[in-house]
Amino acid sequence: MDRKGILVVVSGFSGSGKGTLMKALVEKYHQYALSISATTRQPRPGEENGREYFFVTREAFQKMAEENALIEYAQYVENYYGTPREYVEKQLASGRDVILEIEIQGALRIKEQYPDALLLFVTPPSAEELKRRLTNRGTESAEVIEARLKRAAEEAEGVEAYDYIVVNDDLEACTERLHQLIEAQHSRTSLQKEFLNRIRAELKHLN
Ligand code: 5GP
């Protein structure tokens, strides 16, 4: 069966551990390509331009948006984040599944443009655990942590827009679960039109 790449949107509260999860997923399974977003946020210690994000100025970001070089973009806690179009389209065309680790506004825009996209929402087991992870990361100020927790409460209201929730309590189990859900999406009848047409034609031929 010929496989086309699908778009997989992964969202989750800031601090849900989805970054680590995505790295584990692409390392384990080579069918996945992880899209790198552009952002106006400052790099955190240890982040590298072109690896976690393309760190750009507000002017450069605006130019990308105007030139339609982003398939979606959104504002999140005072910064802009967007998905560069070219990489996504190239990878999908080559048959790889493309993972977008983006927030909810972006996720909804992707679903409008790509109805076959799979929308996954990653969450820690509890709010207490979320706060603990954000605090332990030690990269953000108390104000930013507070803003992110507030944003999490807002985002929690929109989770029904996603296809599946994945609770991240164990990295390995959660990686496996994500992979299974993506595999299941490939089997959806709406993504198997060519196969269905072929087998229908073959069946007619036999009768
Ligand atoms: P962070 O600053 O923690 O790296 O990311 C903040 C939020 O922005 C996260 O929820 C992340 O998933 C989201 N985000 C990252 N890249 C993009 C993007 O290209 N588009 C959108 N809409 N959200 C993004």
UniProtKB/TrEMBL annotation:
Chemical reaction(s) catalysed: GMP + ATP = GDP + ADP
Cellular compartments per GO CC: cytosol
Keywords attached to this entry: ATP-binding, Cytoplasm, Kinase, Nucleotide-binding, Transferase
Subcellular location: Cytoplasm
Coiled coil spans: none
Annotated function: Essential for recycling GMP and indirectly, cGMP.
Residues covered by the Guanylate kinase-like domain: 5-183
GO molecular function, one term: GMP kinase activity
Family label: Belongs to the guanylate kinase family.
A Pfam family matched in the record: Guanylate_kin
Database matches in PANTHER family: GUANYLATE KINASE, GUANYLATE KINASE-RELATED
Predominant localisation class: cytoplasm
Protein name: Guanylate kinase
InterPro entries found in the cross-reference section: GK/Ca_channel_bsu, Guanylate_kin-like_dom, Guanylate_kinase, Guanylate_kinase_CS, P-loop_NTPase
Entry EC number(s): 2.7.4.8
Residues given in the record as ATP binding sites: G12, F13, S14, G15, S16, G17, K18, G19
Gene: gmk
